[in-house]
Amino acid sequence: MASVGVGQVPLLDIRRQEKPIQEELQAAVRGVLESGQYVLGREIEKLEETLAEYSRAACGVACASGSESLLMALMACDVGPGDEVIVPSFTFFATASAVSRLGAVPVFADILPDTWNLDPEDVARKITPRTKAVIPVHLFGLAADMDSLNALAAEHGLAMIEDAAQSIGAEYFPPKTGKSSRVGSLGHIGCFSFYPTKNLGACGDGGALTTNDEKLAEKLRLLRNHGMQPRYYHQIVGLNGRLDAFQGAVLNVKFRYLDTWTAARQANALRYRELFRAAELEEFVRLPFYPKTGRHVWNQYSICVPEGRRDGLRQFLTEKNIGTEIYYPRGLHEQECFAKLPEAEPLPVTDSLTKQVLALPIFPGMTETEQDYVVEMIREFFRL
Ligand SMILES: *Cc1c(COP(=O)(O)O)cnc(C)c1O
Q: Which protein residue's CA is at the shortest distance from atom 3 of ligand 1?
């Protein structure tokens, strides 16, 4: 029996992932303590250079969190009251809240039923003379259809802000040029999160922006520090969006392991597909989209379970000590805080997915025995 001796399979085990590099992390943190420089500084500059190079963008700007990066990106693009910004509804809250925080209106567009990323046709339908920007989310580690979205943005003069919080290192394969490029370099500004559950996680909060436009990078740096340049002279109204040196030091260590961790996630995703096929589970659960081109970095591995059975399966797996999560149980267009927005048109793909998705453990360091057990227990639930 595969179930013997497995114990608990968590959705994510950060300690397991950090254990082999514990000493390096401690040395990095000690180095910051000894330097006495705690905010911005050398570690942050190094992080910004590494991220820009990794994302194949010209400039990197670190900031306090992924949420803050979205806010700063919109501020840099002069989004404000009366503007509309098109965003998916099937995403984490911060994608839309940044828009609201600036007095602008998030306009929700539906997603494609296979990739779960923004549907360019629905985005096109939602463009009005007030539309100022589009924020595609590269959901769960898979790049959105940037060629189609960029064409719309160019046609209507919109700012293109990528929410790459879940997808550092993901590659988009543009069918026209056939030359892969990385998220964060595909629009005007890319937004990243280093929240601990992301593929590159800090030991706390953290975020960053990328851009190919030096002027935008300069404005982002200014915004990050209260629009202050020189000291105590404020050119624009910014905020405190700075990142501390401890997070920079930790991220600089972890960055060296990111490709190994991503490869482990990819191997787990491929192995899930083999296991689900071997268990003949494919008529009971729909597997996530596996792109034939580009690079999926698998921040999450979500399956679709027929409506009405998802919550039962989740309960069953919880009883079997398997960690799962629902990203996302409710679309943003259905959230209480957005009830006063103009009535959104129906988003049928979003609405049906919220009732079907279930994220399974895929973290680097997950063992084959654990993965076998997860699939075996799903099989048991469907009583095969
Ligand atoms: C995590 C996340 C954010 C916010 O990042 P924080 O660092 O937690 O503020 C924004 N958008 C998406 C899609 C995310 O997954």
A: 66
Query: Where residue 137 sits, what CATH number does that domain have?
Result: 3.40.640.10
Give yes or no: residues 269 and 227 share one domain.
Answer: no
Burial (0-12, 13-18, 19+ Cβ within 10 Å), 168: buried
Do 294 and 349 lie in one domain? The reply is: yes
Q: Which domain holds residue 304?
A: 258-383
pLDDT of residue 178: 84
**Whether residues 25 and 174 fall in one domain:** yes
Residue from 63, 72, 118, 193 to probe ligand 1 pocket by mutation (most atoms less than 8 Å from CB) = 193
Per residue in 226-242, pLDDT (tens digit) is: 999 999 999 999 999 99
Identity at 204, one-letter amino acid code: G
Ligand 1 pocket test target in 85, 135, 195 with most atoms within 8 Å of CB = 195
What total of structural domains would you count in the chain?
2
pLDDT value for 5: 57
Q: Dihedral angle at the C-alpha atoms of 51, 55, 58, 60, nearest 10 degrees?
A: -30
- Clarify whether residues 336 and 280 are in a common domain: yes
- Find the 383 Cα to ligand 1 centroid distance in Å: 37
Pick the closest to residue 40 from 318, 241, 297 (CA basis). Answer: 241
Closest CA to 326 of 298, 296, 356: 356
Q: What is the CATH number of the domain that holds 324?
A: 3.90.1150.10
> Cα(127)–Cα(122) distance, rounded to whole angstroms?
9
List, chain by chain if needed, residues with CB within 6 Å of any ligand 1 atom: 65-67, 91-92, 94-95, 137, 163, 165-166, 193, 195, 205, 207
Residue 384 — very low, low, confident or very high, per pLDDT cuts 50/70/90? low
**Distance of CA 193 from the midpoint of ligand 1 (Å):** 6
pTM score above 0.90: yes
> pLDDT tens for residues 62-78?
999 999 999 999 999 99
